[in-house]
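Quick question: what would this complex look like in 3D?
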Amino acid sequence: MKKVKIYVTLRESILDPQGSAVQGSLHNMGYEEISDVRIGKFLEVQIEESARDIDTIVKEICDKLLTNTVIEDYRYEVEEAN
Amino acid sequence: MKKVKIYVTLRESILDPQGSAVQGSLHNMGYEEISDVRIGKFLEVQIEESARDIDTIVKEICDKLLTNTVIEDYRYEVEEAN
């Protein structure tokens, strides 16, 4: 069994209104040194051994369901599940 | 300037209905080998140099605003921003 960590982030060119709102709140709380906040998703997926290649599975599920590739990028790491 | 990557995950004991829904969708799409999905947040925060210690800032903003420590855990990494 493998554990895959998937990091989904907005593309650089895409505005992040949620991140901007959080940054504004942090400024209001006195954290003036925070100059940028961007918010993405972090997914932990357990995948059992099968005939299919793990990289193929991860790329397919990211492209088809987990991310919107028009506005989001993703990267992932595969680990042995304990 | 530092770039801080913050990973927010639901605690092990907390059910993740959003993750379960995604897992169900993946099964319906034919990815039977996916045995668990858990969804968290991934934040990238740029912090300018100040008199305050970077670890203190990150822990404070996580505890006060970014996470719900009753149901969520977090970990973070500090990098030099390029």
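Answer marked as accepted. Strands of chain A lie at 2-10, 34-47, 72-80.
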